[in-house]
Amino acid sequence: MNTEQPKKELSAIKGTKDILPQEARLWQIAEAAAKEIFELYGYRELRAPVIEPTELFEKGTGASSDIVTKEMYTFTDKGGRSVTLRPEYTPSVVRAIIEHRLDLQPQPLRFYYIGPMFRYDKPQKGRYRQFHQIDIEVFGEKDPAVDAEIVEMAHRLLRQLGVENVTTMVNSVGCKKCRPAYGAELRKAAAAVKDRLCPDCQRKAELNPLRIFDCKIETCREVASNFPKITDFLCAECQEHFQEFLGYLDFYGIPYRVDPTLVRGLDYYTKTAFEIVAEHLGAQNAICGGGRYDDMVREFGGPDLCGIGFAMGLERLLSVAKIEPPKKSFVYFAYLGEEAKKQSIATARYLRSEGIECLVEFKDRGMKAHFSRANKIGADWVLIIGEDELAKGKFQLKDMIDSKQYEGTAEELAKIILLKDKKGIKSREE
RNA sequence: GUGAGUGUAGCUCAAGGGUUAGAGCACCGGACUGUGGAUCCGGUGGUUGGGGGUUCGAAUCCCCUCACUCACCCCA
Q1: Residue A7 belongs to a domain
Q2: CA A9 to each of CA A13, A130, A284, A408: distance values in angstroms, whole numbers, following the listed order
Q3: Of A44, A7, A22, A47, whose CA–CA distance to A324 is shortest?
Q4: Which nucleotides of chain B does any protein CB come within 7 A of?
Q5: Both A158 and A71 in a single domain?
Q6: What is the ipTM of this complex?
Q7: Of A291, A320, A349, which marks where a domain is finished?
Q8: Could you tell me the distance in Å between the CA of residue A2 and the C1' of nucleotide B42?
Q9: What is the pLDDT of residues A120-133, one digit of tens each?
């Protein structure tokens, strides 16, 4: 490459990155696994736009949330409308349900989606400005059995991708009836001991007293341990829902930890909230977070339709997943001369139609250079076409793994390749 | 938004004020014109992130800036 480089180097913008082929292979596998598993539970893909009216998130995600107040990619388009690159997915699905009257279809509705989200955050380990989520939502199912089912589904996906050592944290954040009373009690308790809290927590005492539970300072933890717990304030309905949810988790045999201080960052959650955290992920260790949001559709002016869902962070998931990409063999063409080059092109065309990956490089090389090249790029097979082969109408096929060499027509050699590939797959499955 | 750490070749790293900034790996070529991996030889590749300052002299010391990394806040 001898084109002149521009003086100013262009690079991906902060918090975004290229996913190069080797890594993209892992993404493909994780995405395929997610789709396959979700479809097994009756979920169907629903693709919503990446860009939405800004009001959608102000209303859905919550005008007071951190996401909306300081993390959105918002700009004005040429028509003067305020638009936003979605920071999360749920409001888009809710919008789509109302817009297309999907609530008139047989319920419950089950959707999934995999795609990029955008938050203007300061990047760090496990946190990016463009990141990717696997998202699922269920609408119109009140039964706590479904709360447990989505947790079990998440676990199945994690297991499939070789993720080990995860902890499932669960909680109930109550509903409109019982949560306000708890909030008031908590605020009262925090205000009473305000002088014993760190400056940061003193600020939280009024804004969001639940966050005091997360403080790392010893005295704050000690003080907070005497604060009232949400689980003691749940109304009868929420209490029953929570207990049944836990009962179904037990039924599935999924270990969990009840964490009364678990709050999700988004305002709209009701009743069930859960999080799955992994080891070795740094500070941002939640790979999956979700919960129930029974009021959201109605608050958008839609029908009274309850909802529940979770989001899994793909970057975080992949950093703890153990995925071994299956090895697919391919054929490198070693040809000598113009006539053999044409024959290679034609033969590759045939082999590809049989599902065999072929690489014909358009560079004059000697036989040694061909082999050296084939070896370097990891070819499993080398198909040799020179004068002798052209005359005979039969080619040489060398197996680069065990150095055996075969002679035959394109059809005969295709069979040899396909047979060995099949065996290879079989032995991997055992 | 706040704080800390790190920036030297595509990658991993040397050089800690003193010739023209080096090495390994990788890449390209040769030894080797019909058979790969090894070995040997050669080559490409750098405004030392950028700008300014101190100095006879700066990759090295100082300031600013940018980028990356990690942490806080918050979240996937």
Answers
A1: no
A2: 12, 21, 31, 52
A3: A22
A4: 1-3, 27-30, 32-37, 47, 67-76
A5: yes
A6: 0.86
A7: A320
A8: 21
A9: 999 998 999 999 99
